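Here is my example:
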Amino acid sequence: MGERAVSKPTQHEENFPDADALMVALILAPGTFSRNRFFKLYQSESIWQARRRAQVVRSLIKELTDPWPTAGQLPSHPQAVVEQEVMIEGELHLQFSVPDLGYRRSVRLSAVEAAALRYCLDRAGKLQASEQDKRAVELCLSKLAPNLLTEPRVDAPGST
Protein backbone atom coordinates (compact mmCIF):
# COMPACT_ATOMS: atom_id res chain seq x y z
CA MET A 1 0.00 0.00 0.00
CA GLY A 2 1.30 3.50 -0.80
CA GLU A 3 3.44 2.21 -3.66
CA ARG A 4 3.13 4.02 -6.95
CA ALA A 5 2.82 1.89 -10.06
CA VAL A 6 5.04 3.23 -12.84
CA SER A 7 5.42 1.56 -16.20
CA LYS A 8 8.85 0.65 -17.48
CA PRO A 9 10.62 3.29 -19.57
CA THR A 10 9.99 3.00 -23.29
CA GLN A 11 12.23 3.61 -26.30
CA HIS A 12 10.46 6.94 -26.79
CA GLU A 13 11.98 8.39 -23.62
CA GLU A 14 14.79 9.93 -25.66
CA ASN A 15 12.11 12.43 -26.79
CA PHE A 16 11.36 13.33 -23.17
CA PRO A 17 12.82 16.51 -21.77
CA ASP A 18 15.69 16.54 -19.35
CA ALA A 19 14.25 15.82 -15.88
CA ASP A 20 15.93 18.89 -14.34
CA ALA A 21 14.66 21.06 -17.18
CA LEU A 22 11.12 19.82 -16.65
CA MET A 23 11.45 20.33 -12.90
CA VAL A 24 12.53 23.97 -13.37
CA ALA A 25 9.68 24.57 -15.85
CA LEU A 26 7.17 23.12 -13.38
CA ILE A 27 8.57 25.29 -10.58
CA LEU A 28 8.23 28.46 -12.66
CA ALA A 29 4.94 27.57 -14.37
CA PRO A 30 3.28 24.52 -12.79
CA GLY A 31 0.54 24.19 -15.41
CA THR A 32 2.95 24.03 -18.33
CA PHE A 33 3.00 20.25 -18.79
CA SER A 34 -0.48 19.02 -17.92
CA ARG A 35 -1.02 15.32 -17.39
CA ASN A 36 -3.90 15.21 -19.88
CA ARG A 37 -1.91 16.76 -22.71
CA PHE A 38 1.39 14.97 -22.02
CA PHE A 39 0.12 11.64 -20.68
CA LYS A 40 3.00 9.47 -21.98
CA LEU A 41 5.45 11.84 -20.36
CA TYR A 42 3.98 11.07 -16.94
CA GLN A 43 4.60 7.32 -17.27
CA SER A 44 8.34 7.81 -16.71
CA GLU A 45 9.76 7.38 -13.19
CA SER A 46 12.35 10.14 -13.70
CA ILE A 47 9.63 12.56 -14.81
CA TRP A 48 7.44 11.59 -11.84
CA GLN A 49 10.38 12.36 -9.53
CA ALA A 50 10.96 15.70 -11.29
CA ARG A 51 7.31 16.63 -10.72
CA ARG A 52 7.60 15.70 -7.04
CA ARG A 53 10.80 17.74 -6.64
CA ALA A 54 9.08 20.72 -8.28
CA GLN A 55 6.19 20.41 -5.81
CA VAL A 56 8.64 20.47 -2.89
CA VAL A 57 10.37 23.61 -4.18
CA ARG A 58 7.03 25.33 -4.90
CA SER A 59 5.88 24.58 -1.35
CA LEU A 60 9.10 26.17 -0.03
CA ILE A 61 8.51 29.25 -2.18
CA LYS A 62 4.98 29.57 -0.83
CA GLU A 63 6.09 29.17 2.78
CA LEU A 64 8.90 31.71 2.40
CA THR A 65 6.84 34.35 0.56
CA ASP A 66 3.33 34.12 2.01
CA PRO A 67 2.57 35.76 5.33
CA TRP A 68 1.86 33.43 8.22
CA PRO A 69 -1.47 34.51 9.68
CA THR A 70 -2.23 33.87 13.31
CA ALA A 71 -5.76 33.53 14.61
CA GLY A 72 -7.19 36.88 15.63
CA GLN A 73 -4.15 38.91 14.53
CA LEU A 74 -4.57 40.04 10.95
CA PRO A 75 -2.29 43.13 11.04
CA SER A 76 0.92 41.38 12.17
CA HIS A 77 2.22 38.14 10.74
CA PRO A 78 5.14 36.18 12.12
CA GLN A 79 8.03 35.94 9.69
CA ALA A 80 10.01 32.82 8.85
CA VAL A 81 13.58 32.76 10.12
CA VAL A 82 15.82 31.21 7.45
CA GLU A 83 19.20 29.49 7.84
CA GLN A 84 21.07 28.13 4.83
CA GLU A 85 24.07 25.85 4.71
CA VAL A 86 25.73 25.04 1.41
CA MET A 87 26.77 21.41 1.31
CA ILE A 88 29.12 19.42 -0.93
CA GLU A 89 28.90 20.12 -4.69
CA GLY A 90 26.40 22.94 -4.36
CA GLU A 91 23.73 20.97 -2.50
CA LEU A 92 21.81 23.24 -0.15
CA HIS A 93 20.50 22.32 3.27
CA LEU A 94 17.74 24.79 4.05
CA GLN A 95 16.24 25.19 7.49
CA PHE A 96 13.63 27.72 8.46
CA SER A 97 11.24 28.20 11.30
CA VAL A 98 8.40 30.39 12.46
CA PRO A 99 9.12 30.62 16.20
CA ASP A 100 5.77 32.25 17.03
CA LEU A 101 3.98 29.19 15.63
CA GLY A 102 6.44 26.52 16.78
CA TYR A 103 6.95 25.52 13.12
CA ARG A 104 10.25 24.21 11.76
CA ARG A 105 11.14 22.76 8.36
CA SER A 106 14.34 21.32 6.97
CA VAL A 107 15.03 20.18 3.41
CA ARG A 108 18.00 19.31 1.21
CA LEU A 109 18.02 20.70 -2.31
CA SER A 110 20.20 19.89 -5.29
CA ALA A 111 22.15 22.71 -6.92
CA VAL A 112 19.47 23.11 -9.62
CA GLU A 113 16.61 23.06 -7.10
CA ALA A 114 18.43 25.65 -4.96
CA ALA A 115 19.06 27.88 -7.98
CA ALA A 116 15.38 27.68 -8.99
CA LEU A 117 14.32 28.48 -5.41
CA ARG A 118 16.59 31.52 -5.21
CA TYR A 119 15.47 32.62 -8.70
CA CYS A 120 11.80 32.52 -7.62
CA LEU A 121 12.51 34.25 -4.32
CA ASP A 122 14.32 36.95 -6.31
CA ARG A 123 11.27 37.38 -8.54
CA ALA A 124 9.12 37.66 -5.41
CA GLY A 125 11.42 40.38 -4.05
CA LYS A 126 12.59 38.32 -1.08
CA LEU A 127 16.31 38.09 -1.94
CA GLN A 128 18.80 38.80 -4.70
CA ALA A 129 19.58 35.74 -6.88
CA SER A 130 23.11 35.49 -8.21
CA GLU A 131 23.92 35.60 -11.91
CA GLN A 132 25.06 31.98 -11.55
CA ASP A 133 21.58 30.99 -10.29
CA LYS A 134 19.92 32.83 -13.16
CA ARG A 135 22.22 31.16 -15.70
CA ALA A 136 21.55 27.72 -14.17
CA VAL A 137 17.78 28.22 -14.48
CA GLU A 138 18.09 29.51 -18.06
CA LEU A 139 20.40 26.62 -19.01
CA CYS A 140 17.90 24.09 -17.66
CA LEU A 141 15.03 25.69 -19.52
CA SER A 142 17.05 25.66 -22.75
CA LYS A 143 17.19 21.84 -22.52
CA LEU A 144 13.46 21.43 -22.98
CA ALA A 145 12.72 19.55 -26.17
CA PRO A 146 11.06 21.96 -28.64
CA ASN A 147 8.78 19.19 -29.94
CA LEU A 148 7.12 18.95 -26.51
CA LEU A 149 6.31 22.63 -26.40
CA THR A 150 4.24 22.73 -29.55
CA GLU A 151 1.63 20.49 -31.04
CA PRO A 152 2.48 19.02 -34.46
CA ARG A 153 1.04 21.21 -37.18
CA VAL A 154 -1.26 19.51 -39.62
CA ASP A 155 -1.79 21.40 -42.86
CA ALA A 156 -4.96 21.01 -44.83
CA PRO A 157 -4.62 18.91 -47.97
CA GLY A 158 -3.43 20.98 -50.90
CA SER A 159 -2.06 23.85 -48.79
CA THR A 160 1.60 24.80 -48.73
User: Anything to note?
Assistant: The mean pLDDT is 76. Residues 11-66+113-146 form one domain. The longest helix spans residues 45-65. Residues 23 and 29 are 10 Å apart (CA to CA).
